[in-house]
From TrEMBL:
This is Neurofascin isoform X15. Residues 1225-1238 have a biased composition (Polar residues). Residues 1032-1042 have a biased composition (Basic and acidic residues). Residues 746-841, 843-939, 944-1046, 1050-1146 form the Fibronectin type-III domain.
Amino acid sequence: MVKICLECQSEPEERGPGSALRELLTDGETASTDTCSGARLTDFCAVWDAGVFLVSAAGKGAPSGVKKRRLNEAETLNSVREAQFQRLEAARPRGLGRGARGPVLRMAGQPPPWAYTAVLLCALSLGGAIEIPMDLSQPPTITKQSVKDHIVDPRDNILIECEAKGNPAPSFHWTRNSKFFNIAKDPRVSMRRRSGTLVIDFRSGGRPEEYEGEYQCFARNKFGTALSNRIRLQVSKSPLWPKENLDPVVVQEGAPLTLQCNPPPGLPSPVIFWMSSSMEPITQDKRVSQGHNGDLYFSNVMLQDMQTDYSCNARFHFTHTIQQKNPFTLKVLTNHPYNDSSLRNHPDMYSARGVAERTPSFMYPQGTASSQMVLRGMDLLLECIASGVPTPDIAWYKKGGDLPSDKAKFENFNKALRITNVSEEDSGEYFCLASNKMGSIRHTISVRVKAAPYWLDEPKNLILAPGEDGRLVCRANGNPKPTVQWMVNGEPLQSAPPNPNREVAGDTIIFRDTQISSRAVYQCNTSNEHGYLLANAFVSVLDVPPRMLSPRNQLIRVILYNRTRLDCPFFGSPIPTLRWFKNGQGSNLDGGNYHVYENGSLEIKMIRKEDQGIYTCVATNILGKAENQVRLEVKDPTRIYRMPEDQVAKRGTTVQLECRVKHDPSLKLAVSWLKDDEPLYISNRMKKEEDSLTIFGVAERDQGSYTCVASTELDQDLAKAYLTVLADQATPTNRLAALPKGRPDRPRDLELTDLAERSVRLTWIPGDDNNSPITDYVVQFEEDQFQPGVWHDHSKFPGSVNSAVLRLSPYVNYQFRVIAINEVGSSHPSLPSERYRTSGAPPESNPSDVKGEGTRKNNMEITWTPMNATSAFGPNLRYIVKWRRRETRETWNNVTVWGSRYVVGQTPVYVPYEIRVQAENDFGKGPEPDTVIGYSGEDYPRAAPTDVKIRVLNSTAISLQWNRVYSDTVQGQLREYRAYYWRESSLLKNLWVSQKRQQAGFPGDRLRGVVSRLFPYSNYKLEMVVVNGRGDGPRSETKEFTTPEGVPSAPRRFRVRQPNLETINLEWDHPEHPNGILIGYTLKYVAFNGTKVGKQIVENFSPNQTKFTVQRADPVSRYRFSLSARTQVGSGEAVTEESPAPPNEATPTAAYTNNQADIATQGWFIGLMCAIALLVLILLIVCFIKRSRGGKYPVREKKDVPLGPEDPKEEDGSFDYSDEDNKPLQGSQTSLDGTIKQQESDDSLVDYGEGGEGQFNEDGSFIGQYTVKKDKEETEGNESSEATSPVNAIYSLA
């Protein structure tokens, strides 16, 4: 990771630093607004990492609260990896240096510092491209071009980019569809000045579609010709949706449904989404979701789906338009006409609504298997959408392995599996499993991974001196294997003039004894059926002495304790070597606090005061040398030592927030304030001073967080406090009841007394406890030698004391602070005390955790836990490391180390050593250390176990026995003997098995072991190895063995169905693991009714039978079934199911009865029944009166036919009184949409003769008839003709 200290001054007459930083960023990324924002300071010792500036972590010497906040801010911003920068470093070519990316230059008469950094970071972004200074002759290089598939908006002018650099400046021409494109003949086409970019102007008319085709740009100067990619130009299309009238979709509740979108084909393809016609989004879930093809799938339709319509919408990218298809309207046929919202959360919603449950079936894709091809590097999207009742769950698996957890993610409620950045190992068979409680089904998708060409070695520009040798390598891979074609200056290499210094060997061109005439641009085109790659690489022959590319005598300023890197950009041919020197000293800088990279960059790991000085870089080749100097200045960090505190204030009072800062006096300090992380506007109620902010007449709007920002041109520090504003209240009688409890105020006025050699007394004044008594005080200390700025807990004291004697260690420059604690929390730390340094002494202990372990087969690394500042006891703490071979008379080897590790080289393999590590400082040595036994590095074992014997114990386990290996062949610590075994095949034909290798370890020096959990009736192979700390040794001879038959697993998908009250149907599938040859199935079942249990019945079936029907003995009892499969060994695991409950016990029937009981007890229902009874009574009375008055009267039948003389009832003058009470009441009629309507009674007054066709005879007697009107017969022809009593009518109403 590289640190860049930037000076971003926001002056009105200059470009803003934010824009400068944005120009520095690569790949279109933008800088964080925290980086260059604020009044004057924008960036401070930032870290450059893949185009993002990151705030540095807290420097040394900061208070822990401030440091913690700095670290949190740094972690928030640090979202990119250091490995990205290391890749940039590795990709940089030899011979190309960089400008300083540590603290930047500020010299009079030169550009601002970010200008150099911008140039150098842009050079870094080119990766491995070699840069020749533009004042030297060079062939053309394409620097910018349009993408291969170039889609343009037909409403705009067409722009096809092609830019190149070279010396002399290149000229440009184009081909279209592999033919020369004459720009001068087309008035709409022009080329930008000093560029090859084509502009096609349609302001004066014309059709963009006429210019579609394949374009290629050629950039040429006298040293060669460079080519762009073949750019396929296409005009965006957004066709209109065809007009269509959509009939309502009629579907039965519970059935699956697919609403097809079929959007018009656009370029690029539109984005599909579903909404209602009122532009409300369609809620999607596990049951209803949109597929990848844009269709809307219903796994099962419910009645509530009718509440909206469904319209498919297509959004087109270039035109920014949304087209809406005519909406679909659903009509759901149901057995339950009421859309009761309470049923949506019913535990068995489908049964409650009378929807039959169904096993899953796939809606997409169809069938049981399909295949899919995907290109390497693309995303693989597999989709399975299933129907069923209840809604099925979808699970995904890969045959013979696991899903790639780092790349696989589930989408669309687990219906889609997406694997990002597909590679060849992702090919294979995947299957989705759709399951509900009725069963499961799976679909297998065979995935084939192909690959467009991708680079293994992309050709790079070749810069050679006359007489040097070199090579261009063009190596790519793909599937199918791509072909490689070489061109020179845009022409096939075969047709180019012969060059005796050039030799083509497949994907490599070798140059020998190159001369000036060898300059050219070579193109490598590698292609297969899925795509192509085109790369330009020039060969330039130059004879140039070293030259420096950065300004001379740079001044670089850095903050103390930070890391920086000094760069020295240079060029030369032959490629120069680079060395660094400091203050004119003759020794080359490398090692210790300095590290020189292969590209010549000098890194200083941690800047100290003594690192200040003048650094010189010298570049040398056979033609001469060049040098440059950099002056490094080290500045103290900016730190806030008195931070603002959280405060609670009443409205109208005055609040002061302190912010006192310590900074380097040579840097200009600026203090600003933020409110709620936004710049604070200083109103007339506020007063901003150098070390404080005062707010007069506090109001509710002043409540929030306040951040003090202290910044210089190199760094900054932050401190935050929260202001709480209380509303006006009446003065309370009890102060404790009026104010809430809070954290205590920090202690103050720390004082050191009773100064002794190993102790000191610390006294402090407690702060306000804020209505909660102080329970404890924590004393912390900080020392400025080993970990400056880091606070450590020293001791803890009860809240009743304010003075304590502290035990101290020798040679520590102590500084103390105190934190108060109550039940609410901890106070802010007190201000630090004055420092007190104790006198030195020899160490009284040695480092702990001493170990000796080999990291390679010929070394031993000795490590230990270094001693901290309180145990060093003196300056220059170091460690005396001693070692020798164990049980020998050798003398001790010793070395003095300042770190915490030492590597002993050239050791024999795995030999014990005696190790001692002793602490030493300038006052003397520590006590005599203990001896620790360590071992040198291990090597792989050289021998395998022999005479491996296998004994089969049972169908799932074997016993192993082997001969131990000789100890000298282990070459390390014997960890275990390990058996690798795999299932080669099953003894059952056509049974697929996984051949994944498994292992079983037997720790220690054992000679036998047991391998269990094997599959019965299978062929296995086994190998054994010896394992030590380095790894596995050679494999033993492969042994084969066969496991005998075992008992099978339980039959799968055991289903019990009861089609009627007389029979029960049983179905099952074969066991997943037969574990042998199946000889049949055993079914045991017993009838039970409550606590009564009948006699168990046993049935045996053949291995091919998977169905059976049981005749019920009575319609009341239930049955419990137990089914198991059998092999010759015996019966396997049984699966148990019970028959469904009889109808009179089922939940829906019980619910129906309860509903009846509930209705019968309702007041309105009782009143209705009383009214009907009263009406019937009145009718009977009227009929009785009429009969007694008029005697017998003829009444016509329902058909309107005149009474003839043949009617016997008329002859005798009697009145045929039909029993209307026993005639059927008019029933209900079922509507087309499945609902039931209650019809009005035909027994109206009109039918009784009071109007309509009813008549009175001459004496006023009533002559009536019961008539069914013709129009009612025609409109209500499906009325019930079934007789219905009043009681039945009640039930029908219920």
